[in-house]
Amino acid sequence: MSRLKDLYSSRVASGRVRPDPAQAEAVARLDALGRALSASRRWFGGAPRPKGLYIWGPVGRGKSMLMDLFFESLTTDAKTRVHFHDFMLGIHAFIFKWRNLSAADRRRHPAYVREAGEDPIAPAAQNIVNSASVLCFDEFHVTQIADAMILGRLFEHLFARGVTIVATSNRKPSDLYLNGVNRQLFTPFIRRMEEELDVIELRAERDYRLERLSAAPVYYTPLGAASDAAMDAAFERLTGGSSPHSETLNVNGRPLRVSIQAAGVARFSFDELCRKPLGSADYLAIARRYDTVLIDRTPRMNVDEREAAARFVTLIDALYECRTKLVMSAAAEPDELYVSGDGVFEFQRTASRLHEMRSTDYLGAERVQANS
């Protein structure tokens, strides 16, 4: 049995993942791609680049979990996995820096492309190629015209340089950048994607994320060994047993380290999020990146902790605006977390939102890409 199929089968056998024909079909397609990628590295004489995959479907069907398994199963180190929003932030940052380099500095740069001239797109692609031949995207979506205008040219360079792309998305390719400004300029890119990537609709019947969220409470109080154990169980259940690992988000050019995340689920302590100098941009980056966020050990706050309380208000606003799902442990019910001090009135809205975020309607709501 292949490594990918073995990883998936072990999840099913352990009960962490339910048997699902649609997921099994996607695993077979991903496994075939992985074997083709492995074979292409062994061939000589310019072996053809295997076509990539574009897996789309509603939230909660297991796309992130399957991408976790595929990425883990790849035997090459020349691979990169990135959330699409962070990828585009990195591309824009590279373009800005490249345009401000001197001609001499450009020539010395590892991403220098002689025939590119002043155009930064080919060097941006070469910068990716220098470290990865397989590029995996989570949550491929296009909402900004600046991204739409770059993507076609950038991906042409990536395809020409032999990069294989694997992407997950909630939208089929023909719905990307739907109703966007000057969308007719973007449609050639969609056609090119459909030529270069095999498109798979993940037709899983169940919303597994909703089922797992609904299987147990999403708010645990009081704090203690029981709530800690419940949070551990929630993370295991929501990630389907995927191995947690860290990653770093790009927030306006600043790194934001996420220590524990897997399968679209991130876990933080209250102290990590609200007792450090984070702001709305950081919280929005988290809300956009992850379907579900777990927050451990939220305390009762008093007047001396008004800064932490204010950050908590901003954090919950960001999660709520994106309809990111929340599981948390806390010292008290939402209305009792902050009852005196500056910002008490604003916290009442936060308490109301925390109650709503426990409801079936909220847990089943479609995610929203909130504006910056």
Brief digest:
The protein is 46% helix and 17% strand. The chain is α/β, with parallel strands linked by helices and 372 residues long.
Walk me through the structure.
The protein has 372 residues and is an alpha/beta fold. Helices cover 46% and strands 17% of the residues. Helix 6 crosses helix 7, helix 12 packs parallel to helix 13 and helix 13 packs parallel to helix 14. The longest helix is centred in the N-terminal third of the chain and has 22 residues. The radius of gyration is 22 Å and the shape is globular.
Largest sheet descriptor: 6 strands, mixed
**What is the radius of gyration?**
22 Å
What's the count of strands? 11
Mean pLDDT: 90
CATH fold group of the largest domain: Rossmann fold
Structural class, from secondary structure content? alpha/beta
Any idea of the CATH class of the largest domain? Alpha Beta
N-to-C CA distance: 45 Å
- CATH architecture heading of the largest domain: 3-Layer(aba) Sandwich
The percent of residues in helical segments reads 40-55%
At the fourth level of CATH, the homologous superfamily of the largest domain is: P-loop containing nucleotide triphosphate hydrolases
Main attributes of the structure:
Rossmann fold; 15 helices; 372 residues; 11 strands; alpha/beta; 17% strand; five-stranded parallel beta sheet; globular; six-stranded mixed beta sheet
Topology:
Elements: H1 3-14, H2 21-42, E1 52-56, H3 63-73, E2 79-83, H4 84-99, H5 103-108, H6 121-129, E3 134-138, H7 145-160, E4 164-169, H8 187-196, E5 197-201, H9 208-214, E6 219-220, H10 225-239, E7 245-251, E8 254-262, E9 265-269, H11 270-274, H12 280-289, E10 292-298, H13 306-321, E11 325-330, H14 344-356, H15 360-363
Helix pairs in contact: 1-2, 1-3, 2-3, 6-7, 7-8, 12-13, 13-14
